[in-house]
Design goal:
Structural class: alpha+beta
Largest sheet: 4 strands, antiparallel
Radius of gyration: 16 Å
Strand content: 15-25%
Order of helices and strands: HHHHEEEEHH
Number of helices: 6
Helix content: 40-55%
Distance between the termini: 32 Å
Low-confidence stretches: 163-168
Mean pLDDT: 79
């Protein structure tokens, strides 16, 4: 059984195989990482941290459902990210025959994974919503400047990776 960390790292190593880019392959692998009681037993997260992560992700899902009107949100589920000992949520969007997958972390929230051929405008819209959500909660959680810098670097890395792939 492939865990979250192994799946993400294998997909980030060139050369990219055609079947690795298939949304169905991604979904199949991520369904093996669905948050379970087994994960809750091994995590170092407290019950409060788990509930906050789940609540943040469900609240962000509501924002996506309201704001992303050109795409259908076909499926979403919680995932356990073993690499970071964190709760994430997978979102499967569709528009016509096009389907795209995003995985967003409960802490931040931050984009953890996108399929390589993701629609650029969908990614921009979701990134903007993530930033808006983060900025609106800054006064509530008193973020340190280095955390904001780290968040910015992670978002840039996701964009750079997708733009490099799209230019090939």
């Amino acid at each position: 059984m492939e865990n979250f960390y192994d799946f993400i790292n294998k997909r980030n190593q060139p050369p990219y195989e055609k079947e690795d880019l298939n949304v169905d392959v991604i979904l199949k692998a991520m369904r093996r990482c669905i948050l379970s009681e087994k994960h809750l037993e091994i995590t170092k997260l407290s019950k409060i941290e788990i509930e906050i992560s789940k609540k943040n992700l469900l609240n962000f899902q509501k924002i996506l459902e309201i704001e992303i009107t050109e795409w259908a949100l076909d499926e979403s589920f919680f995932i356990y990210n073993d690499d970071e000992d964190a709760i994430c949520r997978l979102f499967l969007f569709s528009k016509g025959l096009k389907r795209d997958v995003l995985i967003i972390g409960g802490c931040g929230p931050l984009i953890k994974f996108v399929n390589k051929e993701i629609d650029t405008y969908l990614l921009f819209d979701i990134s903007n919503l993530l930033l808006d959500t983060l900025v609106s909660t800054i006064s509530e959680i008193q973020l340190k400047p280095n955390l904001l810098r780290r968040i910015g670097e992670l978002i840039k890395r996701v964009f750079r990776g997708n733009l490099l792939f799209l230019n090939k």
